[in-house]
Specification:
Layout (H helix, E strand, L loop, with lengths): L15 H10 L5 H4 L21 H12 L9 E2 L12 H7 L2 H4 L12 H16 L3 E2 L6 H16 L3 E5 L4 H11 L4 E5 L10 H7 L4 E7 L11 H10 L3 E6 L17 E5 L15 E5 L3 H4 L7 E5 L6 E5 L6 H4 L12 H38 L5 E2 L8 E5 L7 H9 L3 E2 L2 E2 L10 E5 L6 H15 L17
Parallel strand pairs: 1-13, 3-4, 3-5, 5-6, 6-7
Antiparallel strand pairs: 2-8, 7-8, 9-10, 11-12, 12-15, 14-15
Helix pairs in contact: 4-13, 6-13, 7-8, 13-15
């Protein structure tokens, strides 16, 4: 029986005569010759059950039907956060990052400058001012990678092998840190206080040793609490000869103190709150910041852009700083291998910060605090519902439903039926908290949406609540 010969409409170079020519060029007679090194026992022996290729119209219709099954934040109210947060994106951010010289380039990095070096230099300068540091890298993939790289930098500087990480960290981030720092570095978890959600200082003191390379903590924490003992944590780390690495949500720095001012040696975080949409599977972008100290600067594996005068008086150019320290220059001898980076989101964050300015960042921070505190007050007024920790919070807080007799899963299912995405279920990773969920409230949430959430949860509980004046909580600087 003859085999039907055809060119697949969506696979390049699939025409039979083209495939045969390509095989001749490399000295093979069949496709099977290419896979000769793969043992037979590892190969699929039967034909794959793949349906015939759809027409372009049929494929478009099929994909759209699948996409219409999605529940998105455009037609639903979302109180989800936990690493990817709903924030307002000024239209100018999309206008700039959609320009061809930025958007179509590999990782936001065209092979001709066209202003990219300057755009990234401006981003670095603005983030440096925000976190009160001097040097900022071209962005990594996300906060988890930024934290992992920062911890590896600390280990190389101290020549030590143990990393102290808070137990209340994002579980997904912890897995990435462990994977990225293995096998030569050891991760040890430090307990947190069940009353406040802050780092347990007595446990930290007990675990600090001559092997500790770095102490890492986040402010606010993954569970929302503001870490009021930041300076004390940094002092304890430094007394033990370790480096203090602080992870931060950059949009909080309009109302919260910069980590550099309470002892952080390395600051890292995610740029997504700064003008980047919650793209499914994307939109994350990590940054690392330090002081202008060669000991730290030369340990950056990623690219750094600087400004320098040219041979023309009064003219300046932008380019790589200490390029020879990177794996691009040293290849396998680099301290870390660095490849594609999220430069496009760095440029976007620069546009956001330039647009907002210091006053705008303070205003958005105050707006977030007003709304989140109002939401927490509303929810905690429902009988059986409580806010878990006593420490102050910024935009995320843990809501405890243990006394209601309802599980977080039951509550979230009921909320979804009313067009609301409830908080992130913490019961799987933090069983010690009981039936708790992490809620996120930002500047995009209105009083009407917060009240709708409260009413919806009340209906799930089938209890009455006492009304509270809208936005009655103060927005004092944390």
């Amino acid at each position: 029986m003859s085999v039907k010969r055809f060119a697949h409409p969506y696979i390049p170079n699939s025409a039979p005569e083209v495939k045969e020519q390509m095989l001749r060029e490399i000295g093979f007679s069949s496709i099977e010759d290419i896979f000769a090194d793969i043992p037979q026992e590892l190969r699929l022996q039967e034909k794959m059950n793949i349906p015939p290729a759809l027409t372009e119209y049929e494929l478009d219709r099929h994909v759209n039907l699948l996409m219409n099954k999605n529940h998105t934040t455009k037609e639903n109210i979302s109180f989800l956060g936990a690493g990817c947060w709903p924030h307002f994106v000024p239209v100018v951010c999309d206008e700039i990052n959609s320009r061809a010289e930025f958007l179509t380039a590999y990782a936001g990095e065209p092979y001709e400058d066209k202003g990219r070096f300057q755009a990234l230099f401006e981003y670095q300068s603005l983030v440096a001012e925000l976190v009160d540091m001097d040097v900022v890298n071209v962005p990594t993939f996300d906060w988890a990678q930024a934290a992992s790289t920062a911890l590896r930098m600390a280990a190389r500087i101290t020549k030590r092998t143990e990393l102290l990480i808070p137990k209340n960290i994002n579980p997904d981030k912890l897995l990435i840190i462990k994977n990225y720092t293995s096998p030569d570095l050891t991760v040890t978890l430090v307990d947190y206080e069940i009353e406040t959600g802050a780092l347990d200082l007595s446990d930290l003191k007990a675990k600090l040793s001559a092997s500790t390379a770095a102490v890492y903590f986040e402010n606010p924490t993954f569970l929302g609490s503001v870490e009021a003992n930041g300076q004390l944590i940094a002092d304890l780390a430094h007394a033990a000869g370790a480096i203090c690495v602080v992870g931060v949500d950059p949009i909080s720095l309009g109302v919260m103190e910069a980590p550099a001012n309470y002892g952080a040696d390395i600051v890292c975080g995610d740029l997504q709150p700064l003008g980047v949409h919650m793209h499914y599977g994307g939109g994350q972008s990590g940054f690392i910041a330090t002081h202008d100290d060669p000991t730290y600067v030369m340990e950056y594996p990623s690219r750094l852009f600087g400004i320098a005068p040219t041979v023309v008086e009064g003219e300046y150019g932008f380019g790589d700083v200490a390029y020879d320290r990177t794996s691009f220059a040293k290849r396998e001898n680099g301290k870390e291998s660095v490849g594609t980076q999220t430069a496009l989101w760095g440029i976007t964050a620069g546009v956001y910060l330039a647009t907002m300015g210091p006053v705008g960042m303070e205003e958005v921070g105050q707006g977030i605090m007003q709304r989140s505190q109002y939401a927490a007050k509303q929810l905690s007024s429902i009988p059986g519902v409580a806010i878990k920790f006593t420490a102050p919070f910024f935009k995320e807080f843990v809501v405890d439903f243990t006394q209601t007799g309802k599980t977080v899963k039951e509550i979230n299912t009921a909320l979804l039926a009313q067009g609301i995405f409830g908080g992130v279920d913490l019961t799987g990773h933090f069983p010690e908290l009981g039936q708790c969920a992490l809620y996120c409230v930002t500047e995009i949430h209105t009083q009407e949406e917060i009240d709708k959430l409260t009413t919806a949860i009340q209906s799930v509980m089938q209890v009455k609540k006492t009304p509270i004046d809208a936005y009655s909580m103060r927005s004092d600087r944390v």
